[in-house]
Design a protein that fits this description.
The strands form 2 sheets. The protein has an 8-stranded antiparallel beta sheet with strand order 3-4-5-6-10-9-8-7. It has a two-stranded antiparallel sheet with strand order 1-2. The protein is elongated. It is of the alpha+beta class. It has a domain at 72-221. Strand 3 and strand 4 form a beta hairpin. It has helices spanning 2-18, 30-34, 82-90, 140-158, 177-183, and strands spanning 72-73, 76-77, 95-98, 101-104, 118-122, 125-133, 163-167, 187-193, 199-205, 215-221. It contains 5 helices and 10 strands. The longest helix is centred in the middle third of the chain and has 19 residues, at 140-158. Helices cover 25% and strands 23% of the residues.
Length: 224
């Protein structure tokens, strides 16, 4: 009997322990999220490194002439002295002087571009020749066709130009084209540059110096 009483007492002592509630975990409050972190434990913002953008491809170098530098221009040999150049002119035309330059009243036989050539000398040697071509009609189509014809002949001789630019607004593509050349709103240029400094230029524009009409101008100059 005594053993039974002791067994019951032991069971009653164990039961409260079995049914004891587990301690509740403390729930985080809003204050826990807003409270500052202890010193030394702050989260530091690390700005991400910017992604390196791919570098654009460099523009291709301008084309170089496919021919050697010209040895002559408009039928005149570069490097000739003034007397030899004048004799070449007077076989067909009249030699003249205009400011610092010289002129011939007619082109020489076989000249690629018809017109009255203008010639310049450096140290008494021929170093530049040029000619201006004025199209009779003011219409854009006629001027453009003449310019492209002259340009094509130079491309066939020297390859693609180093500089190739044209500006013609739509409002100028008619019979007012010459007025657009006169006021500078329309122009065209094709230039060939050699490493030794020689330059051949074909322009369609107003004259940049002195008085003169808008024209298509060809210039070939040594060490230009």
């Amino acid at each position: 009997m005594r053993r039974a009483i002791l067994a019951i007492s032991a069971i009653l002592m164990v039961l409260p322990a079995c049914y004891r509630k587990a301690p509740q975990q403390k729930q985080s409050s809003v204050d826990d999220f807003t409270a500052p972190a202890p010193p030394g434990q702050e989260e530091k913002w690390v700005e991400p490194e910017p992604k390196e953008e791919p570098k654009p491809e460099p523009p291709p170098p301008p084309p170089e002439p496919t021919s050697p530098p010209p040895e002559e221009g408009l039928g005149y040999k570069f490097g000739q002295d003034k007397n030899a150049t004048m004799l070449k002119c007077t076989k067909r035309g009249t030699w003249g002087k205009r400011g610092a330059t010289y002129t011939c009243s007619r082109p020489v036989d076989g000249a690629a571009i018809p017109g009255k050539p203008v010639l310049s000398f450096c140290d008494e040697k021929l170093c530049a020749v040029g000619v201006a071509v004025v199209v009779e009609t003011p219409d854009h189509a006629a001027w453009s066709a003449r310019f492209e014809e002259m340009k094509a002949a130079l491309v066939a001789k020297h390859g693609a130009p180093t500089v190739d630019a044209i500006t013609v607004p739509d409002t100028c593509k008619n019979e007012t084209f010459v007025k657009c050349l006169d006021d500078g709103s329309a122009s065209a240029e094709a230039t060939w540059k050699w490493k030794d400094g020689h330059r051949v230029t074909l322009t369609m524009s107003k004259k940049k110096s002195d008085d003169g009409p808008s024209a298509i101008r060809f210039v070939s100059i040594v060490n230009g």
